[in-house]
Inverse folding.
């Protein structure tokens, strides 16, 4: 048995009205990959903050074995100087600086004169970029990069440090495409080889089963159990997390697709996609898979008039329509749940009530004057329909958990009574329980005769839910599967199609 | 039963936590202290004067609130007010243009200035602070040029009367303008799609676009509408001062922004309300008015106002942090 590097020792953390952590204890061994599982709100993030020294536990302590001596890190700087690093859930890097500057933030190489040695910084950065197969210029500003690449920068940034002992990954794969996930796993394996301990947090239990050695489960701020990974299964893990058994959560009731409701012909834009044709039937769930950059989201953005396209026609119920902006799209019954709910799906500072209604004020107003009663009724009604957990519809959306925020977005779309719903990565950063609820909502929608386009980078989800699956690579459709063929499809086959060189 | 009780309690605490409640208390206390502590504060003359002092800043502050809700700011509001006032005075002194037409022209000029602000902010993506700082400077220069940097008097008698009339001997006509404007904006913000969309835009322009909100039109409208209110404020200024000064309106922008911010409007956008702004206006004006009655020097009062602004925003930040 290898030695213990970190002891989480009876820690509790209280916030006004909430017990975030309640007497949690477990140990991290040297060189192990230790998964931390639990639903949103289970206390994982608070625990990490305590380990990093960002938050001080109200009771108990987190101590670390530093060269045989037991120490407590009082703040993040101290933790980092003792080789503890964290990769947080929300990308936290300096957006206006370049990749190289971010890598060497606070430890820029110096020339003999004491100035920043830009050349060395660039060369060293290039090495890291090559190692992580990122294929970008180190001088590029972070904010010009796609979000997946930004996430990759924060991950690769860890490797800049010399003395690494404990690394915390909080949902590192939420934003990554499969190929980059493999690179991340290789990095984790390498760290492990060097005797570094990893604390790994992910909602994707398949990953936990694949790469972790030990798993600790938290539920509502309390410790449930720690077990070697060989002694658990995906289902038993879920049962530990939610306190009940959950069989196949992708198993929803499918409808027999009806007549064609939407047809896209010859969609082409300047760089993201070329010659795209597809159609959608009533009551159908049409899945789109592909690596990040395959052009899936861009097609949908062009379809809804968010972005311009060079050519292509849209037919709704057989009639050609001209969609110039998102309000046209809504008029023709197409609603869009965008990939990044925090920046373009929700008004975080505003209450649930406004968020649910903001797409559809015209439906409850006369001459521009809103019926406040209707506004309130609709907010109550739709938030109940999608089961938003909140004491009041006046609650600010920014205070809700990821899953509940996503449900608010869905309620917003439903308010317009659309025929077609486009869901772009609907379950990113959403816990297992809320995921299942979102799938149930999708099931209910198709039963009402609505059609869904589902974009997801998470293969089990998109393969499990779709009636028909379109695979894209580099802006082109490279495969389409339905029926028996889809049922027998393996993830490897899909990945092969998704990585065809254009 | 139990549930209902809980609900009532929580709505009661939310009233106490509101910025408006705190401001109201401070205003009442200040009013009582000034009434007891000085001989001349609670007189008809001074109260009338106090309302007149509030009126112009009050109109500007309400206009400013709308812009701040969208995440913007308008530094040019004092300048446009001064321009409206000067255009009005010059037309009335030097031309035979019909009285009502002079009012309309002054307002139209202000609307155009506001629209230009909106275009610069939206089309060229210039930060509102910088865009309106630019137009402010341009307009101040223009006012000096068209007036020859001299005070213009010789206003129409009807305008002079309007500035001097107090209904019932106590309620100035100027204050009625302020009340009407405030009520209209209150209704717009609370009941109309336009008002609701301002909050959505302030919360995120991308979100607003994806909601099908015509963001360009909204920007144009809100800045032009603010311009319209500045135009009205310019007319009020002419009536109050009984002439047009080449420095008219200078510094008003800071008082207007301060009143909105003290009233709870957030410069990051998405938050602000007319009731708070009205109270903010009253508090700012009251401090100065009562301070003078107490014989405090204006420079000391200037420091007091500054401290108040910082305190108001700090408390707001602390509250937000506690919630988050």
């Amino acid at each position: 048995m290898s030695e213990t590097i970190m002891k989480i020792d009876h820690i509790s953390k209280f916030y006004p009205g909430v017990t975030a952590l309640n007497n949690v204890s477990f140990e991290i061994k040297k060189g192990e990959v230790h998964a931390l599982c639990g639903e949103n709100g289970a206390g994982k993030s608070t625990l990490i903050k305590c380990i990093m020294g960002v938050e001080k536990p109200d009771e108990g302590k987190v101590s670390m074995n530093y060269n045989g001596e037991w120490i407590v890190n009082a703040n993040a700087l101290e933790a980092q100087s003792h080789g503890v690093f964290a990769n947080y859930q929300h990308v936290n890097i300096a957006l206006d600086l370049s990749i190289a500057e971010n890598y060497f933030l606070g430890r820029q190489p110096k020339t003999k004169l004491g100035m920043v040695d830009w050349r060395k910084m660039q060369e060293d950065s290039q090495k890291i970029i090559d190692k992580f197969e990122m294929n970008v210029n180190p001088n590029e500003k972070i904010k010009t990069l796609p979000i997946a690449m930004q996430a990759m920068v924060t991950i690769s940034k860890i490797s800049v440090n010399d003395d690494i002992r404990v690394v915390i990954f909080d949902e590192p794969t939420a934003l990554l495409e499969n190929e980059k996930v493999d690179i991340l796993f290789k990095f984790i394996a390498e760290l492990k080889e060097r005797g570094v301990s990893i604390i790994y947090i992910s909602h994707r239990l398949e990953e936990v089963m694949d790469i972790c050695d030990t798993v600790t489960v938290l539920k509502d701020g309390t410790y449930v159990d720690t077990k070697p990974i060989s002694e658990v299964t995906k289902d038993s893990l879920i049962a530990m997390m939610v306190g009940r058994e959950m069989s196949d959560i992708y198993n929803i009731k499918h409808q027999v697709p009806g007549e064609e409701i939407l047809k896209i012909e010859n969609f082409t834009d300047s760089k993201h996609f070329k010659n795209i044709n597809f159609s959608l039937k009533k009551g159908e769930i049409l899945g789109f898979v592909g690596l990040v950059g395959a052009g899936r989201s861009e097609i949908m953005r062009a379809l809804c008039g968010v972005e311009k396209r060079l050519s292509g026609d849209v037919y709704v119920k057989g009639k050609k329509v001209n969609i110039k902006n998102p309000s046209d799209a809504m008029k023709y019954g197409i609603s869009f749940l965008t990939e990044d709910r925090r920046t373009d799906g929700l008004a975080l500072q505003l209450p649930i009530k406004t968020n649910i209604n903001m797409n559809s004020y015209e439906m409850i107003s006369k001459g521009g004057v809103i019926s406040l009663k209707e506004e309130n009724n609709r907010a109550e009604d739709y938030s109940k329909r999608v089961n938003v957990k909140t004491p009041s519809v006046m609650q600010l959306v920014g205070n809700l958990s990821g899953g509940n925020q996503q449900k608010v977005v869905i309620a917003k779309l439903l308010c317009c009574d659309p025929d077609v719903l486009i869901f772009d990565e609907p379950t990113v950063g959403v816990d297992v329980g809320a995921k299942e609820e979102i799938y149930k909502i999708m099931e209910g929608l198709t039963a009402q005769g609505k059609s869904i386009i589902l974009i997801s980078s998470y293969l089990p989800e998109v393969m499990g839910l779709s009636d028909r699956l379109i695979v894209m690579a580099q802006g082109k459709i490279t495969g389409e599967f339905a029926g028996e063929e889809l049922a027998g499809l393996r993830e490897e086959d899909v990945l092969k199609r998704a990585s065809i060189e254009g | 039963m139990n549930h209902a009780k809980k609900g009532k309690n929580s709505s009661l605490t939310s009233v106490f936590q509101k910025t408006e409640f705190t401001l109201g208390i401070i205003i009442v206390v200040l009013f009582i202290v000034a009434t007891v502590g000085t001989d001349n504060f609670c007189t008809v003359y001074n109260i009338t004067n106090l309302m007149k002092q509030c009126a112009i800043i009050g109109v500007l502050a309400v206009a400013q609130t709308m812009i701040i809700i969208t995440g913007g700011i308008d530094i040019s509001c004092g300048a446009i007010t001064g321009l409206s006032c000067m255009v009005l005075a010059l037309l009335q002194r030097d031309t035979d243009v019909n009285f009502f037409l002079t009012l309309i022209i002054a307002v139209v000029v202000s609307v155009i200035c506001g629209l230009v602000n909106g275009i610069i902010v939206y089309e060229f993506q210039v930060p509102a602070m910088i865009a309106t700082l630019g137009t402010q400077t341009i307009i101040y220069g223009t006012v000096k040029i068209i007036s020859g940097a001299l005070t213009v008097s010789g206003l129409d008698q009807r305008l002079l009367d309007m500035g001097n009339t107090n209904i019932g001997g106590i309620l100035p006509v100027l204050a009625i303008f302020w009340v009407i404007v405030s009520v209209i904006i209150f209704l717009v913000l609370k009941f109309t799609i336009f008002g609701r969309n301002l909050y959505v835009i302030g919360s995120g322009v991308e979100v607003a676009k994806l909601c099908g909100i015509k963001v360009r039109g909204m920007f144009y409208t809100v800045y032009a509408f603010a311009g319209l209110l500045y135009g009205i404020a310019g007319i009020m200024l002419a009536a109050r001062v009984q002439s047009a000064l080449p420095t008219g309106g200078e510094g008003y922008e800071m008082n207007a922004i301060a009143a909105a911010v003290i009233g709870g409007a957030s410069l990051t956008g998405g938050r602000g309300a007319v009731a708070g702004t009205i109270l903010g206006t009253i508090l700012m004006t009251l401090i100065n008015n009562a301070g003078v009655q107490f014989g405090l020097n204006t420079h000391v009062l200037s420091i007091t106002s500054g401290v108040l602004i910082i305190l108001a925003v700090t408390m707001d930040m602390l509250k937000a942090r506690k919630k988050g």
About this structure: The two ends of chain A are 50 Å apart (CA to CA). Residues 178-193 of chain A form the longest helix (16 residues). Chain A touches chain B at residues 16, 304, 306, 325-330, 336, 338, 343-350, 354, 357-359, 361-362, 365, 368-370, 372, 396, 398-399 (CB under 8 Å). The mean pLDDT of chain A is 89.
